[in-house]
Known about the structure:
Elements: E1 18-21, E2 24-27, E3 30-31, H1 32-38, H2 41-50, H3 56-68, H4 74-80, H5 90-101, H6 113-138, H7 152-161, H8 167-180, H9 187-196, H10 202-213, H11 221-232, H12 238-247, H13 267-281, H14 284-301, H15 307-317, H16 325-346
Antiparallel strand pairs: 1-2, 2-3
The structure holds acetyl coenzyme *A and oxaloacetate ion (OAA).
Oxaloacetate ion binds at residues 183, 186, 258-259, 306-307.
Amino acid sequence: xxxxxxxxxxxxxxxxxxxxxxxxxxxxxxxxxxxxxxxxxxxxxxxxxxxxxxxxxxxxxxxxxxxxxxxxxxxxxxxxxxxxxxxxxxxxxxxxxxxxxxxxxxxxxxxxxxxxxxxxxxxxxxxxxxxxxxxxxxxxxxxxxxxxxxxxxxxxxxxxxxxxxxxxxxxxxxxxxxxxxxxxxxxxxxxxxxxxxxxxxxxxxxxxxxxxxxxxxxxxxxxxxxxxxxxxxxxxxxxxxxxxxxxxxxxxxxxxxxxxxxxxxxxxxxxxxxxxxxxxxxxxxxxxxxxxxxxxxxxxxxxxxxxxxxxxxxxxxxxxxxxxxxxxxxxxxxxxxxxxxxxxxxxxxxxxxxxxxxxxxxxxxxxxxxx
Length: 371
Ligand SMILES: CC(=O)SCCNC(=O)CCNC(=O)[C@H](O)C(C)(C)COP(=O)(O)OP(=O)(O)OC[C@H]1O[C@@H](n2cnc3c(N)ncnc32)[C@H](O)[C@@H]1OP(=O)(O)O
Ligand SMILES: O=C([O-])CC(=O)C(=O)O
């Protein structure tokens, strides 16, 4: 029984949520380019959970349902205020706070489909509040409640900054949320599915997924891209700095992908957003450095930029703290996790692969006093 390291190329489930075929990404059969250019994040969430685009009425009521569920229990706010936020990574705080939400949800362990759908709405709405409340509390500010007339993307920025965002900021945030919403059987989504396939609850599945997204080989890469750009600091230093990193066998964050070998279809949208937003905000050097790095890595390693590469300079241009980049990924990706969790419950079987044993065999137990 030979093993496949990292499960590369293994098809572990059937799904009707998203597909990656020949480097093309679709959500429920809709091309990501169309969705990125035309849809709202709320519409995409509705699509992922209901497998159809909403009518105008359905979308309006879904939007208000999300906003009316954005408040979080006072105990979660008190908890966020109870520890030294300057030493805690926001992904750890979000992971804990999301788990805590389950303690205040009387339906947490209800397994009926409708109850799970209601929990999906609550989680999608409340995770945005957790991330923004965390950010405000650590700056000594009070959390801000959402506004009923703002979209999900606009409310996220509003709750973060206590200031209504400009249209260009709302459009960028909306597009980023759409682009990050789902991605087939990526590591965090697989984690969520493995967790709930034991018939554990939705909160456990999402908490586990947040833990997986946090790692630098997955969602945690976007924060590290910005760290790398900040360290490199100038366009002239981009190539020499990357050469040095490769000499030291370091991985270049935001580059490479398990599935895409010729290019991540989301990256071109984020690249264009990065060009526009960095120019608008006087941060063009980050875009120009990114271009040099992308070209160098493509030429010398044959690796494409992934979704995390240009999202870094996009979020930086929106004035967002660098350690909030991965939590923002979670605010979007929770929609995909929830879609996959619902799909897993609908036709469940325990996920339990095998390991090829390569350790010692036939060992004789010796009592402790003889070792
Ligand atoms: C939202 C997302 O999760 S997108 C991915 C975000 N992660 C990153 O950006 C981190 C940087 N990238 C990587 O670590 C990898 O490309 C991954 C994790 C995305 C994919 O990993 P895998 O499919 O397992 O590829 P693996 O790590 O085995 O790499 C294959 C080869 O390419 C090299 N390689 C892959 N990515 C990189 C990189 N970013 N920088 C330098 N070399 C790389 C590896 O060193 C390896 O080379 P070798 O065969 O000479 O040893
Ligand atoms: O699919 C993957 O392996 C990682 C990825 O791009 C994502 O989760 O968006």
